[in-house]
Amino acid sequence: MLEARNLGYRVGERWLVKGVDLAVRGGEFLAVLGPNGSGKTTLLRLLSGELRPSLGEVWLQEKPLAAYTSERLARVRAVLSQNREMGFPYTAYEVAFLGRLPHLWGRRESLEDHAKVEAALGRAQAAGFKERLFPSLSGGEAMRVEVARLLAQEARLFLLDEPTNHLDPRYALELLCLFRALAYEGSAVVAVLHDLNLAGLFADRVLLLKDGRPVAYGAPQAVLHPALLEEVYEVPFHALGQPGAFRFLLPVPKEVVHGG
Amino acid sequence: MTQPFSFPRSRRYRLALLALALLLVLSLLLGAGLGAYPIPPLAIPGILLKGEGVEYQVLTALRFPRVLGAALVGALLALAGAVLQGLFRNPLVDPGLIGVSSGAALGAAIFIVLWPWAGVLEVYALPLFAFLGGLLATHLLWRLARTPLGVQVSVLLLSGIALNALVGAGIGLLTFLASEQELRSLTFWTLGGFSALTWRLLLAGLPLALLALFLLFPLARPLNALALGEREAFHLGVDLEALKRRAVAGAALAVGVAVALAGGVGFLGLVAPHLFRLLAGPDHRYLLPGSALLGAGLAVGADLLARTLAAPAEIPVGVVTALLGGPFFLYLVLRYKREVYRA
């Protein structure tokens, strides 16, 4: 579905991303991890076609990304960004309906389009507040509406930029469960995450970045090791739980600060 | 559940459009009827059918070019305002406030002073030059106001102030240099007026006006996507550069024609889209035609007030629109202040 070979992006003399190889098939969930400023978001922007790579190429469904028009691209891949800014009072329904846009070029919207948006709102658990104004929604509600917009887009590849930011644990889990289910149904998911444990729980594969370079790429059990994580994040990690099963990772301060 | 899908919003959009179309017809009839020689508005269809008499002459030679011209100017300004607000993703944008109208006025004024011998061609060339002035101003604003974080409203409005001041100086200078016949007064370019409208002017501006409509109306869907953000619009398949070029050219064309016909009538481009959003909602597929209808109605109404309030004298129509639009803008600023600063 999605493939990147020796991907690099340079601003001036500085490489924000360099030497990244990855391949995501339909049915897979790839988590991109790394400290702040390690190039995760830049990588996602390269994969979405927003930025042209300085080096290497991204392939989507056996075709280079550059061969797609933005409109055809939008029928294959959907992106959840971090921006929730909206200057105009659209309703939640109208925002979700924007997901149909790539399918509406040169034709009028049909009842079928509306049915798909309704179904997407239902699946994202946003049907209850579809007539409310988007700017008046809480962070969690707005995120659900955005997810409904992505579902209405009927893409095969989902790129998510820190989707669990500002979400409480329940919303975060529900959101990742939904995308995990979409992956099981055959879509491909690439998510930039901050939470190592969520990545371990939901991802088939993990890409660990540091300073724009890939440090490790593989199954979560292999990549999420305290020693490796300490090297990347520069803080010690403890692994909790039984060896063999998924082990929860906990960053611990080097010195314990005692009160009083 | 009486029907599978219920969209109260979409019904509201259609009702609003219908109501505004009726309102426009009403204002056109009133505008054509009232004046120094009053004609009962309801008798107008009958008079037109008869096709003769003083009343027919008054209607076809004086009133119709004026009210239809006012409607066209109002529609173009409101449409340009709605599109620019969508493009800059900010509801505080108005072609007059950010200097697009001034740019168009300067273009027109330069043409009149530089080619006083244009003669017959003037009615055709004037809108073109106004368009070029408006295009330059809009393009400049886009370049100035865009930051890596999107369009910043403060930069946009400040650029508008600077542009307006510069253009004001330019027009003042041209007025000073030009003879009275060459250049209509400074008041015309800054406050506008519909008194000079003739069939000839109107027909000359019509092709460009239609071109502007043709450019702007198909932008409704991409503008809806742009409301989410520039990157989000790209993710939804919008070609941002193409959208920007078309929106800037179309808006400059609309404002150029409006300014060439009626000078700088202010605030219609701000007020009409806002009222429509309050009436129905922000969906550009309805907002664009709705704003055009509302702007046309408002312009005809403002012109009616301008020529009847102090009859037989005439108030510049820009004074009327500014009297209505100024307080409205203040209200918007206050609301913006409350939203952003919780003050």
Notes on the protein architecture:
The complex is a heterodimer of chains A (260) and B (343). Chain A has 9 helices and 12 strands. Chain A has 260 residues and is of the alpha/beta class. Chain B has 343 residues and is an all-alpha fold. Helix content of chain B is 74%, strand content 1%. The radius of gyration of chain B is 20 Å and the shape is globular. Chain B has one domain (10-341): ABC transporter involved in vitamin B12 uptake, BtuC, CATH 1.10.3470. The A-B interface holds A 48-50, 69-75, 78-79, 81, 83, 85-91, 93-95, 98-99, 101-102, 104-105, 111, 114-115, 118, 131, 153 and B 4-5, 7-9, 89-91, 221, 224-225, 227-229, 231-232, 234-239, 277, 281-283.
Shape of chain B: globular
Total beta-strand segments of chain B: 2
Helix content of chain B: over 70%
Number of domains of chain A: 2
Q: How do the SSEs of chain A run, as a string of H and E? A: EEEHEEHEHHHEHEHEEHHEE
Note the total helix count of chain A. 9
What string gives the helices and strands of chain B in order?
HHHHHEEHHHHHHHHH
Using the CA coordinates, give the radius of gyration of chain A: 19 Å
CATH classification, class level of the largest domain in chain A? Alpha Beta
Q: Strand pairing plus helix content of chain A: what structural class?
A: alpha/beta
Query: Which spans of chain B have pLDDT < 50 for at least 5 consecutive residues?
Result: 1-6
Radius of gyration of chain B: 20 Å
Low-confidence stretches of chain A: none
